[in-house]
Structures are given as C-alpha cells and as structure tokens.
Amino acid sequence: MPITKHNRLVASTIAVVLGATSLAACGSSDDDKSASQSGPATLTFWTWAPGMDKVVDLWNKGPGKQQQITVEVKKQASGDTLITKILTAHKAKKAPDLVQAEYQALPTLVSNDALADIAAESKEAKTKFADGVWQQTTLGTDAVYAIPQDIGPMMFYYRADLFKKYGLTVPTTWEQFAETARALKKKAPDKALTTFSANDSGQFAGLAQQAGAKWWTASGDKWKVGIDDAATRKVADFWGGLVKEGAIDNQPMYQPAWNKALNTGKEIAWVSAVWAPGTLTTAAPQTTGKWAMAPLPQWSAGENVTGSWGGSSTAVTTDSPHKAAAAKFAAWLNTDPQAVAALAKESGIYPASTSAQTSDAFAQPPAFFSNQPDFYTKASEIAKTTAPSAWGPNVNVAYTSFNDAFGAAAKNKSDFGAALKTMQDATVADLKKQGFGVAQ
Amino acid sequence: MTTARRKPYGVKGAPYGFLLPATILFVLFFALPIGYAIWLSLHKVQVKGLGLGAGARNEVWAGLRNYTDALTDSELVAGALRVAGYGLIVVPVMLGLALVFALMLDAEKVRLAPFTRLAIFLPYAIPGVVAALLWGFLYLPDVSPFYFILGKLGLPQPNLLDGGPLFLALSNIAVWGGTGFNMIVIYTSLQAIPAEVREAAKLDGAGPLQTALRIKIPMVAPSLVLTFFFSIIATLQVFSEPTTLKPLTNSVSTTWSPLMKVYRDAFNTGDIYAAAAEAVIIAVVTLVLSFGFLRAANSRTKQEEAR
Amino acid sequence: MSSLAVRKAAPAAGTTPGTAQGPPLRGRIALVPTLTLLLGALYCLLPVAWVVIAATKSGRELFSTFTFLPGTGFTQNIKDLSAYRDGIYWKWMGNSALYAGLGALLSTAVSAVSGYALAIYRFRGRETIFNVLMAGVLMPPVILAIPQYLLMAKADLTDSYASVLLPLVLSPYGVYLARIYAAAAVPGDVVEAGRMDGAGEWRIFTRVALPMMVPGLVTVFLFQFVAVWNNFLLPYIMLSDDEKFPITLGLFTLLEQGSNTPALYTLVITGALLAIIPLVALFLVIQRFWSLDLLSGAVKS
Questions:
Q1: Does the beta carbon of B45 lie under 8 angstroms from any beta carbon of chain A?
Q2: Mind listing the pLDDT tens digit for each residue in C86-134?
Q3: Which domains are delineated in chain B?
Q4: Least crowded by CB within 10 Å, which of A293, B54, C118, C152?
Q5: Chains A–B, number of C-beta pairs less than 8 Å apart
Q6: What is the CATH number of the domain that holds C130?
C-alpha cells in the first residue's frame, strides 16, 4: 500500500497545523471581548424561517439604523444537519453571529461552547415569556443562551365532519382516544384514527413530556437520563398496544401516502402542534374547513397538560465579535410587537412571547381553520399548560435511536418497551463515551 | 513507445510536469482531508462533568478505540451484508444492461439512437432532493399507478418496501440511475474502434452478434474494467438509494448501509471521530476489493498482451 | 435521428471506400436493437415523466389527483418559482451553471493532461502515481466534506465560489477515463513522429494528441458537469450565503423550512424539472462530438 506512509506524513503535518491554529484561536478570543463594544456592526444570521429577510428589513431600517447594527440573513435548511454545520463552522471559529436553533439543540450547542451567555443583555426580554419557555434557554443555569422565538404546544386535530359521520366523540383522555380508534376500526375497517410514525422523534418526545417524563436532568455534575422512565414507558406501551392490535396505522408521516391518507379521510385525526394548519394546507388541501382542533387527550380526566413539538430560538454564538449588538437584535426580533407581528405574518410562526400570542396578528383563525374562529384564543390557553421540558446534550443521539428502534418496532408491531430500552441505552452509552458525568 | 535511452531530458521530465496540477490538487483536496480524517479517527471528545460552559470539551487521543468500537458494532457488519446482497443485484444488472445498450447503440441501422441514448442517460440528471418524492409516488401502494393497475387487474400487490423486495426496490433505483452513465462510457469506447477493424470482421463473414462478442467486447475491455471498478466502489459506498427510500418506510434504518452509518454519526449524532474511523474501515475494504479486482484485471490483460 | 447514422457512416466510407455499406442493407431497420433501446428508454423515462407531470400540478392537485394525470398549474408554478424571494431560483440556476461549467472545464483539462501523461509516457513511479490518484475515490466524500471545510477555513475561503469549485477539479474518475481514451486514441508513433519534427512535448500534446482525445474528453466533461451539478454535501457545508447556493442546495432549503412551514413541494418539483433542461441541452450539444470524424480527421492532418 503506497499511500499509507504518505498519509501518516500528512496526518502529522495536519496535527501540527491544527495545534498551531488552536493556539492562535485562543489568542484571538481575548481580543473578541474588547471588540464586542458598540459601534457600527454587521451581523450574519443563519435561519430557516421563510420571510425572515423581510422581518430583518424592519430592523435594518428602524432600530438597527439608529444603533448602526445591520443584520444580514443567510437562509439555511432546518434539521439536525444544520447543527453539524454550525458546529463545523464554530470549529473553524467562523460561526455566524446569530443562529436559529431548536430548543432541544441548545444543550448540544452549549456543550460545544458555541453559544454565548447573553444574560446581561436579556433581562428585559425575560419578562415577556412564560417561565416554562424561558427555562429552556437557560438550561437550569444562571446563563441565558438564546431568546425564544416560536413554540409548538401540542394539540389534537380531527376531521369534525367524519367524527360526526361515524358518531365519534372527541376524546379528552388517552383511554377515550384508544376507544375512539377501536370504534372507528369497527365501523370503517379501511380507515384509521391516526398513525404512529417513527420518523419524527419530536412528536414522541412531546407526548412523553405531557406524561411528565424528564429525559435529561442534571444533578450535581452528572446527567441523569430518564428516557426509560415510568411516564415515557406508559406512552410507549400505549401507542405500541394500539399499533399491535391494529387500531391505528403505522406508516411514517410526511410522505405521499400519508398526505393522501389525510386528504382522502383515510386517517381522520392527527396528534400535532399549533403549526399543524400550515402542514395540513399542503398535505390535505381538499379538506379545508373540515378539521377542528381540541386540547390533547389527558392521562387522567380533569388534568390539563400538553407537551411541545417544535419551536425554536435565536442564539448568539461565541464566535461573534459583536455579541452585545447581536443580543440586542435577538431580543428585538422576539419581543418587539412590530417584529413579532411581522414574524407571524411572513414566517408563519406561533410566537413564544406571551403578549404576542393574543395580539391582533392572531385575532383571526388560520385560513385552513376558518370554521373555528377561536382557534388562536384556544391555542394560547393550551400553550399555558405546556409541561416543562428537559433537554440534554445528546438529544440528537436519542432522536436517531428513536427513528431506528421505534421504526423497527412499528414495522414488526413488536414491543415498544424494548425499543424504549434501546433508546435509553444508546443515549447513556453515548454520554459515557463522550465522558459526561452520568448518574445511574 | 521507443526505448527510454533515446529520450532527451525534456521527454523524461514532461510526464511529471503534466501530472503536477493533478498532484497539487490531490495533496490539497484529497490527501490533506484524508489525513485529517485519519487524525480524527484516532481521537475522541472528552467532556468534563455536565459539559456546559467554556473549556468543558476537549479533543483527546483515543488510540484505536474508535476502530475497535466500529469493528465490534454488529450494525456495521449487518449493514455490510445488506450492501453485499444489494451489490450482487445491482452490479451485474446495471453493467449488463449498460453493455447491451451500448452495443445496440453502436449497431448498424438503429433508429432513434440519439433519442434513446439521451433517454437512458436522463435519470442521472434527476437531483436527489426530488428522488424521494418521486419514488414515493411510484412505490407506495396508496399512490402508485402500478398498484392501481395491479388492483384493477385483480393481481396481488407486493409490498415493495420490506424484506426481499426492498432490495429489488433499491436496486431498481440504482440501475435506473446508473445504467445510462455506464452505457455512455462503454459507448464512447466503442466509437473509438477503428472502422477498418469493423470492416475486417464483416469481410470475414461475422454477423452482428459475433462481431460484438469477438471484436467489440474485447476491444472495450479497459472501459469495462473501469465501469466495474467504479461500480464496486459505488456499491460499497452506497448511500443515496437507501437514503431516498428511508422517509417512505420503517424498513430502512439510519444504519442500513455502512456509509449511512458514517453519515449519521458525522451529521446527525455529531460523532465525527467514530464516523472517521468507520470511513477509514470502509476505505480499506474498498481498497482491498476494488484494487484487488483491478490488479487481477490488469494481470490478465498483460498476459494477453504477452501472448 | 438519421443524422447520426450519416455521421457514423461518413468516416467509414472515407477511410475504406467501396466496402461494407452495400446497397442491399441500406434503409432497413435493425429491429432487435431498436426495440431493446426503446424499451430501455421507456424504463428510464417513466420516472422522469412523473417529474414532468407533477410539475404541471398545483399544490391542491399534487397529492389528490391520479399520479400520471397532468394538472393545471404549470405556468402558475413557474411564476411562483420565479417570484420566490425575488427570483433567487434563477440565481441558483446561474450558480449551478457556473460551478458545473467552470468546474467541469477545469476538471476535464486536468484529467486530459494527467491521463495523457499516464497513458503515453513510461516513467518511474507511473503506476504509483496512478494508484495514489485513484485512491482518492476510496475515502467516501461524506467524510471528506468536514475536513475540506476546516482546511478551506484556514485559507479563509469558506462561503466563496472557490470553496465549492476547487475540491471538485481533480476527478479520479476523469483521470482514469482520460487515460483509457488517450491509450486508445493516441498512437505512440504519432507522438514519436511529432518529436522527430522537433516539436516540444507540450506542443505535441496540445496540437496532436488533444484533438484525438476530444470524443473521450467530452464524455469526461459531461460526467463532471452532471456530478458537480448534482453535488450536494460539499456546497452544503461550504456555503452559508444562499445567494451562492447551487440549485440542489436551494431546492433543499425550500423543502426544509422548519416544522411550522409546509414544504414547498410544487416549487421544488418545478425547480427540479427546469434544472433538467440545461443538462439535456448540454447532452445534445455533446453527443455531436462522440462521432469518429473529428478523430480520423486529426489522424490524417
């Protein structure tokens, strides 16, 4: 093998080069502190929200112009891979000043030292958010790593017309949900209430959150992983049971057959979040006005809790030479009434800021739900009942493990409990491998 | 070529000069990144405590740990076996079709050749972002027109996205996408066969089939070796076909093929170190298999030349 | 269609006059090859036809009407696509053309000169250099993207056109292909004759060998063009400014806009269809160079 020697040489050369640059990087980070003073600044902002450039224009023409802070939007694709892209850029000390990040990704970014603490600049912003939402950006510390942008409280969506046709009532508990699924199967065997999909971990995480699960908790300097806890196990067994008995479907979401099932009424309900109207508009365009939204079924009657699925925040990176300016913009973007209204209009987000949820922008229901005039009033009520979330530094590992383990279990209609165990083990093993303190 | 002794200095130095651009590019964009990947494969991240805050995360020497982890990972081995099964379908079918189509294009009195040539090549131009949607519409029973027709005819409708048929579904995507590409390689070589050779065969009374078997195929052997060599590598590094079908079914895991696992580790779960080690292992296996093939093919051609 | 037959027949008639192409055969169609090729074309075009038909469907029709039933939204889809963010799609198209065109051109040049050197000269280390260049394909590109980014970052070249162009210039496949074509198309005695005339090595390559290699090189160009055109991961990692995105990456951002925003399927499908058109045009241009007349013309002069 002629290449081996060559490569070894190259490897050692690179090692030397890298050593040199990491020293250089250490040196430059000191300069950053003095540079993060006020003065003219141009900030880059990685975001996937559509229409963000229009919202940012408001800043650049208004408050940004006064403070000589210009923001440039660089539109990205959302998803797990964006975190890798940010971390790779961060490794080269080239991360943008501002990034949009989903809440569950924040611990990963923080543990890579990619996000700056903006606690000093965000004292005022804190008052605009519900405690449960704000807590996700502090990770239980005194630091603040991001300003919440949008949230995804979970809800139950159903075809009002078909529920009526089959004489079904809207379930208020999960027990009733299961009965409804069985009743529908009996009346119309070719239909299903909904599907259990293994391709979006966020949905399952939100359902577990509703049941009271705390997947990651910190105690002292150790992480405790509770994916396989009683609450989550209850959720897994519930859905696994429904799949096994054939009461619900097991096809993945977000693919042509699923769209068709929603569009033709083959599946007549969807456990989703506040952003569902947007998805239904493309997935099931022929069913406009036929859906209705209700609170998520509860584990015990009389309870009033929901989980969250999706939602994101605006964070400032440690690579930014203008951290204070970037923090100012992040706070403005997510708390200024004009900015949040524009975000709702241009990007279609459901704002995290409490007052914005009841602003004029949300006086009318989404076009797809014109039949439910109080859609957003109800949504803001539901949002208040969101259970606290508990994210850890390797959510991505747990999520990937979910895709595989639950995908196989849903396909084989086998024990979901075993899949949950796999997910727990994979997550703990990864934490240990990375050297995190792990409590048993 | 004439003997080396007569060559002036310029001739001796020329090939090195000609190869200089390729060498520089290779060092910068292959050797250095490969070296860096190998360096990564020998390291791992070491976090302290909760891992929050500055300086909690360090890169440390891992020795061969990432390699032993990868080699003892049953998913990687299972993935390799799946890929072997997939390759046994794809490589012969794809190259067989490519050779047949190329010979047909090269045959005399063929009509519509430019059209069919373009048509067979066209799948290569469909970008991956659309492919998942496209195959979803053709493979998923609820939306596929083929299932619709099968249903109308009262024929059984197999589930293409599970078990054995899944391999066929994946292979079909690869064959569909890659045949035209290989066909063009072989066809271009066929075009280079001198007219005199073709005429001589005809004068000997050889029919089109005999000409193809005895004259054309041996003459394009280097191209066949090339397509084989790169098809083996593409198979061992199969990634896009299973990734395309992944959103459609629960049967394709994120570790279906070894390279999918590399991608998952590098881009989804953020363990670039493990991903690098797995990639190095894939590279070594590819090296052994593909270069072993190349050596075997070369020694055969050399034997034939010697005869 | 018949133009190819004419072109193919022309050099044959020119070099060996009076043989073979006898009148009795003329005009008949070779049935088996033609039918086989048509079947192959059908197999390959069916999924492509889906893209064409889907692009005519409006958002409402895409998931509701029969898969192969054309829709009514084609012109609207194109309008929407052109209107999206002030026509950034066409910017992406231009970027892709630049990356693929320039990238393929440079790549073909490097492949040609390297392949020629490897095929024609006997020199110390020839097989080693060849094997090492080939070894470049062993390491999966998936794992090279991140190191390539970090190295580009050292040169301060990330988020630039060069960061996407440069790593793709050297194509082991192209070098291999060019070597095969040079070995087949450039006879050793022609090179030797050039030396006898006192021509330098570079001059022999550019004036004598290069024209002979054209049919093979256009193939290399075509493959590199399509490879760069469809490349995704490298630009994904390298670029942050979507004004510099190629089409593949741009369409991906339309699909992945976050959970609260639906994927713009119709725009993506229409965009993908329009992106095929330049590739078809390129193919039609390039296939003119596959015939032998250029080659045989060069041998004679």
A1: yes
A2: 899 999 999 999 999 999 999 999 999 999 999 999 999 999 999 999 8
A3: 73-306 (1.10.3720.10)
A4: B54
A5: 142
A6: 1.10.3720.10
Cβ–Cβ gap A222/B268 under 8 Å: no
Between residues 65 and 124 of chain B, which touch chain A (CB distance below 8 Å)?
none
What is the C-alpha separation between B62 and B44, in angstroms, rounded? 6
Choose among B122, A346, B109: nearest CA to C9: B109
Measured between CB atoms, does A259 come within 8 Å of chain C?
yes
Regarding pTM above 0.90, the answer is no
Residues from chain B contacting residue C15 (CB–CB below 8 Å):
194-196
| CATH fold of the domain at A36-151+310-367 | D-Maltodextrin-Binding Protein; domain 2 (3.40.190)
Closest by CA to A257, choosing from B137, C68, B131, B244, is B137
Which stretches of chain A score pLDDT less than 70? Answer: 1-38
Give yes or no for a contact between C46 and C68, defined as CB atoms under 8 angstroms apart: no
CB nearest to B35's CB, from A11, A256, A435: A11
| Closest to C268 measured CA to CA, from C256, C281, C278, C279 | C256
B61 - beta bridge partners? B43
Q: How far is C255 from chain A (nearest CA, A)?
A: 8
Name the closest residue on chain B to residue A258, using Cα atoms. B142
Domains A36-151+310-367 and A153-308+393-439 fall in the same CATH topology: yes
Phi/psi of residue A292, nearest 5 degrees: -140, 160
pLDDT averaged per 10 residues, chain B (length 307): 49 90 95 94 91 83 94 93 95 97 90 91 83 86 87 84 89 93 91 83 86 90 91 90 90 94 92 94 91 83 63
Q: Do A411 and B250 touch (CB under 8 A)?
A: yes
Q: How far apart are CA C208 and CA C272, in angstroms?
A: 41
The two tokens of residue B213 are 């078997």
Give residue B161's Cα distance to chain centre: 22
Q: Is C166 on the interface with B (CB under 8 A)?
A: yes
Which pLDDT tens digit goes with each residue over A91-129? Answer: 999 999 999 999 999 999 999 999 999 999 999 999 999
Q: How many residues does chain C have?
A: 301
Q: What is the pLDDT of residues A220-233, one digit of tens each?
A: 889 999 999 999 99
Q: For chain A, say whether B29 makes contact (Cβ under 8 Å).
A: no
Q: Domain A153-308+393-439 sits in which CATH superfamily?
A: Periplasmic binding protein-like II (3.40.190.10)
C196 interfacial to chain B (CB closer than 8 Å): no
Q: Is A16 exposed, middle or buried (0-12, 13-18, 19+ CB in 10 A)?
A: exposed
Sequence ranges of the domains in chain A? 36-151+310-367, 153-308+393-439
Does B283 sit within 8 Å of C140, measured CB to CB?
Answer: yes
* CB proximity under 8 Å: A 339-398 to C: 347-350
Nearest Cα residue in chain B from C218? B188
User: If interface means Cβ-Cβ distance under 8 Å, which residues of chain C face chain A?
Assistant: 59-60, 63-64, 85, 128, 131-132, 135, 146, 149-150, 153-154, 158, 236-237, 240-242, 249, 252-253, 255-265
pLDDT digits (tens, 9 = 90+) for C138-194: 888 888 998 999 999 999 999 999 999 999 999 999 999 999 989 988 888 999 999
pLDDT exceeds 60 at position C29: yes
A88 touches chain C (CB under 8 A): yes
Cα angle B48-B53-B58, degrees, rounded to a multiple of 5: 45
Query: Which residue in B has a C-alpha nearest to residue C113's C-alpha?
Result: B18
Query: Chain B residue closest to A140 (CA)?
Result: B52
> Which residues numbered 70-109 in C keep a CB inside 8 Å of some CB on B?
none
* List of residues 6+ apart from A327 with CB closer than 8 A: A116, A118, A121, A122, A147, A316
Name B92's Cβ contacts closer than 8 Å, sequence gap at least 6: none
